[in-house]
Amino acid sequence: MERPQRELKFAFPNRLADLLRAWVDVRCRPDPAFAAGRIASIYFDLPGGALLDEKLNSDYLKTKVRLRWYGDWHTGRPAGSVFLEVKQRIGGSRKKYRRPLDWAAADLDRRPLEDVRLLDVNRWLDAAGFRFGGPLRPAICLAYRRRRWLEPATGARICLDQDIAPVRIHGAWGVVARGQPLADGVFEVKGPDERLPAALQPLIALGCRRESFSKFQRCLAQRRAPAPPAYA
């Protein structure tokens, strides 16, 4: 029987990203499927922010719904298709639904979050059997650069996300306050164990600290509140 996969997250100062990448490069193999690139995602939520609250409250059931696409590591230029993803964490277990869409990444990379075509996500979710107590709406688009490796001894999948930044926010949620990268990046390890592989233990001394890390929540924390409506 296949052993369950654990997901460990470690935050680190974003300014140390290049140092950490170089350190891991010496000890791990580049992931043959996706070694480096830019990732952009549009996160969805109910108008009251129920999915975000699940994360903030550490609920037993936590769900993320997003559209995701990929681009070049150096230029950020988007390419390929768009994917609809639903990630659910139920206690200690995880499930992921992923569906390719007919949309082009280059188009979605520029599309305003107020575009009504994005609401088609609800129809696709309903067809896949997901229920959320109401229609989901786009909340935020964020982007970052990712490097991925395989750890030789354990086969664990390693990824390092840096330069995480909000790109745009739906007007109902606010406006981008700075649009600059977060102060922290995140280093993730997916494998069978509840601790770092032995070869990666020195990462703690290099500035990585284990903690919960939500890109959705941290990027939203940079927003300013929406402007009040104008009355005649």
Mean pLDDT: 90
Number of domains: 1
| Relative strand content | 35-45%
SS content category: alpha+beta
CATH T-level topology: mRNA Triphosphatase Cet1, Chain A
Topology, number of strands: 12
Broad shape: globular
Biggest sheet details: 10 strands, antiparallel
**Count of DSSP helices?**
5
The CATH class, by name, is: Alpha Beta
How do the helices and strands follow one another from N- to C-terminus? EHEEHEEEHHEEEEEHE
Q: Residue ranges: pLDDT <50 for 5 or more in a row?
A: none
CATH architecture: Alpha-Beta Barrel
How large, in whole angstroms, is the Cα Rg? 18 Å
Q: Name the CATH superfamily assignment.
A: VTC, catalytic tunnel domain
Percent helix = 10-25%
Rounded to the nearest angstrom, the distance between the terminal CA atoms is: 67 Å
Explained architecture:
By secondary structure, the protein is of the alpha+beta class. It has one domain: mRNA Triphosphatase Cet1, Chain A (Alpha-Beta Barrel). The protein is 16% helix and 42% strand. It contains five helices and twelve strands. The protein has helices spanning 17-27, 50-56, 105-108, 120-127, 215-220; strands at 6-13, 29-30, 36-45, 61-71, 78-90, 93-104, 137-150, 157-169, 175-176, 184-191, 209-210, 223-224. The strands form two sheets. Strands 1, 2, 3, 4, 5, 6, 7, 8, 10 and 11 form a ten-stranded antiparallel sheet that branches. Strand 5 (78-90) and strand 6 form a beta hairpin. The radius of gyration is 18 Å and the shape is globular. It starts with 5 loop residues before the first strand and ends in an 8-residue tail after the last strand.
